[in-house]
DNA sequence: CACACACTTTACATTGTGTAAAGTTGACAA
DNA sequence: TTGTCAACTTTACACAATGTAAAGTGTGTG
């Protein structure tokens, strides 16, 4: 039945995530995934037409597990524009470490694979909409800094929240996740608030 | 003589840069480089032990051509801390597009090649020193925002000036180089100046 | 009982890196 | 003039990883 079909497919996707998020980081060659899933390498090609296809599917699979949409949508319930911006920044900032590994693979694959590139670009465009919504909320409240129009502010925020910047902050800079979030809150306030909250 | 040796080596390095900076972007497989240099593929291995070695050498070769050190050192002559920060940001911001292609290859190679990773990391550490010097100058003038200590400000600036952020700004955001520099000036002022210059 | 389907097994093509070793050439020295 | 050395070429091969192809296995359902 299709149950078996689904089970094997799921086993493969789970195996992919297991390898991607294992410590220390493991390789995720097609054969590694197959072995981890307890399945032949060819079985993987039976379900996914190539590695890019598998990793894109694994990304969606992870989305479901993390309930990504719901988590990011939560920031929309905030009352003020400021609260909404901070809620969005925090939600996304906490989301990155959970998807970081697979994001890296997808970004890296984007250099050669068109489908991977477009899958990642879609996610980034969705993310930009979240940035735009937060900036728009700030603007609607009249609390967006007059130094930016909404487009520019959105692009700056979008850039600040990139996976690469998280990686650089927590890697090269050696910041903890907590510090990363603190600095993100501080810098977004200084940049985007019409009247930045000053430290006492 | 060693003249011949040097000439072939130089030809190969130049060929590497020619391919890296060609429009549209060309592949830089060992065989492509060899063909471009008018030399056999094996000759490349005679001068460079592997692809990482070749690309690291090409990076240094480009440094010489661009007189990298001199350009970045120029920012140190600025009088005030504010001028110095802006001079450094502008110098680096204008430097990135000139090294972007080779930086990308080196970064990408860092995922698998230890030598490439450490070559790129060295450059980034050098760059961080430039950031630190600029922030220190601001701090010495008493014009560094009290919201940051010098370490944190350095790390934030360092992150802002990353190659990835340039790529995202001029690529995904669609900004021109001029706009990139303008936004960089604006955001660094808002973040790091004790008393940010306000738009009229 | 058979046959359909999911999966396995085996084998092979392809691409790019890197190694190995024999052959060629040209400049310079005896 | 000849010999030799170094730089380079040519040819060949090993290896890793992706992807294709096709025959074989085993099981549950009509």
TrEMBL record, chains A, B:
GO molecular function: DNA-binding transcription factor activity; transcription cis-regulatory region binding
Limits of the HTH tetR-type domain: 6-66
Official protein name in the record: TetR family transcriptional regulator
A Pfam cross-reference name: TetR_N
Keywords: DNA-binding, Transcription, Transcription regulation
Superkingdom assignment: Bacteria
High-level lineage: Bacteria, Pseudomonadati, Pseudomonadota, Alphaproteobacteria, Rhodobacterales
Gene3D superfamilies: Tetracycline Repressor, domain 2
Presence of keyword Transcription: yes
Annotated DNA-binding residue span(s): 29-48
UniProt keyword Transcription, yes or no: yes
Entry-linked InterPro entries: Homeodomain-like_sf (IPR009057), HTH-type_TetR-like_transc_reg (IPR050109), HTH_TetR (IPR001647), Tet_transcr_reg_TetR-rel_C_sf (IPR036271)
Residue ranges of the TM segments: none
């Amino acid at each position: 039945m299709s149950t078996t079909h689904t089970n094997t497919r799921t086993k493969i996707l789970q195996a992919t995530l297991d390898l991607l998020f294992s410590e220390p980081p493991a390789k995720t060659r097609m054969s590694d995934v197959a072995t981890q899933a307890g399945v032949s390498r060819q079985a993987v090609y039976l379900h996914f037409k190539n590695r890019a296809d598998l990793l894109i599917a694994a990304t969606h699979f992870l989305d479901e597990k993390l309930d990504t949409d719901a988590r990011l949508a939560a920031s929309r319930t905030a009352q003020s524009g400021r609260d909404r911006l901070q809620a969005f920044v925090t939600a996304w900032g906490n989301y990155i470490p959970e998807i970081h590994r697979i994001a890296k693979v997808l970004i890296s694959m984007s250099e050669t694979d068109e489908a991977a590139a477009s899958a990642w670009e879609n996610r980034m465009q969705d993310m930009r909409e979240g940035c735009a919504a937060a900036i728009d909320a700030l603007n609607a409240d009249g609390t967006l800094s007059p130094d930016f129009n909404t487009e520019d502010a959105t692009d700056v925020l979008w850039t600040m929240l990139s996976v690469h910047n998280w990686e650089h902050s927590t890697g090269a800079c050696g910041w903890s996740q907590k510090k990363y979030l603190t600095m993100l809150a501080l810098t977004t306030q200084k940049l985007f608030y019409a009247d930045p909250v000053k430290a006492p």
